[in-house]
Amino acid sequence: MRIVMIGTGYVGLVSGACFADFGHDVVCVDKDQSKIDALLRGEIPIFEPGLDELVAKNVEAGRLSFTLDLPEALPGADAVFIAVGTPSRRGDGHADLSYVYAAAREMAPLLPDGVVVVDKSTVPVGTGDEVERIIREEAPDLQFSVASNPEFLREGAAIDDFKRPDRVVIGVNDEHAEAVLEEIYRPLTRNESPLIAMSRRGAELTKYAANAFLATKIGFINEIADLCEKVGADVRDVAKGIGLDTRIGNRFLMPGPGYGGSCFPKDTLALLKTGQDYEAPLRIVESVVQSNDQRKRSMGRKVIQALGGGEQHGKTVAVLGLTFKANTDDMRDSPAISIVQALQDAGIAVKAYDPEGMEQAKKVIDNVTYCDGPYDALDGADAAVIVTEWDTFRALDLDRVKSLLKAPILVDLRNLYSRHDVEKHGFTYVGVGR
To answer: What broad class of enzyme is this (predicted)?
Structure first.
């Protein structure tokens, strides 16, 4: 089938490359000249393991192309996916849908009859209705459908998630849209990947509900970790004890410095606003958002306390990991931002290293000494703090770390190390919930 992907950000580029790898003819369209130029040169604007090879393979095979020219891309399209950004709107936390609606308005006069317009962007309930209204207003004689197809991709594992999904949710209000999307995803259904069809509004809400539930699990285990520290329990034992219950499951029960990234922060806020608009307040989600915001800053205080809790002006902390999670260069709402700010507010200097996120971090965190490697960051610091669970931080030479630090203090906000293993090297070890 011929697929047009509007937007070459994280969702659009990964989805477009994977659809092309299924054998579809995919054209990715973007208004950003520099981004399209880079893609045409074979340069990938985001870090996602395996994406550069996947894009190159399908460009070479002639199934994947990139353009700035929307009128050139749309003729003959069976489906047009809208995969533009929906950031939190300044002031009220609602999802900013201006890019979605602008895309719908611009494409409407150019769409071929029979096309299915698919919202791939994360959008609140009712967005599909408005997209349909806009297109009908701009092209009253067009025969078309509007569907919802939310993405459930984890940054760092997006390609595998797309090709081996737990489920594919499609929100459709007519049989034609359902048939087209079933054909697009047919390579997955052959592998018995479940395709779940529901109403368009149901699919829109499913995306937000899923992210809010996962954020709730993270917030819950983080608060249990705090309680474990007070009562002398190990949160790892508690997490295992509840996670083996199949009704609960063990995923998203790893305590840490709080969630960040492109999805959970903005989606929980957008869901709260939707609940308020429909007079169905979501008190649990509201508590999760507040708890997570407070936790990020509290992790900075945890590091300060590990330094002795007194006058810390003039001391230096080595921050290992800046991105919100491993295997991405995404700094959006990363806990590292709040942690570094808390340290700096206490008069502490920060040296930092991240395997992939340094350039993005420089755009959002000032007055930090960015280093060439973990040991460079550790050299001369008064303490080390692990913020992101990169594999490269799991096997540090602890004797070398100790020799570089002024004081052997390791604050492990991801519980990558065993307290026993670290303390036998002469460290003061501070974990989470242990």
So the answer is: oxidoreductase
Mean of all residue pLDDT scores within the chain: 96
Q: State the Cα–Cα distance between residues 132 and 147, nearest whole angstrom.
A: 9
Quick one: fold of 2-193? Rossmann fold (3.40.50)
In the chain, where are the structural domains located?
Answer: 2-193, 236-430
Quick one: pLDDT at residue 193?
66
Residues belonging to the active site: 263
Q: Which of 181, 194, 305, 325 has its CA nearest to residue 252? A: 325
CA distances from 186 to 15, 164, 178, 192 (A): 15, 13, 12, 10
User: pLDDT tens-digit profile of 237-292?
Assistant: 999 999 999 999 999 999 999 999 989 999 999 999 999 999 999 999 999 999 99
Give this prediction's pTM.
Answer: 0.92
* Tally of residues, the chain: 434
- Rounded CA-CA distance 169/107 in Å is 24
Q: Around Cβ 171, how many Cβ atoms within 10 Å?
A: 27
Do 2-193 and 236-430 share a fold?
Answer: yes
What's 236-430's CATH class?
A: alpha beta
Cβ-in-10-Å burial (0-12, 13-18, 19+) of 281 comes to exposed
Phi-psi region of 117 (alpha: psi -120 to 50; beta: other; left: phi over 0): beta
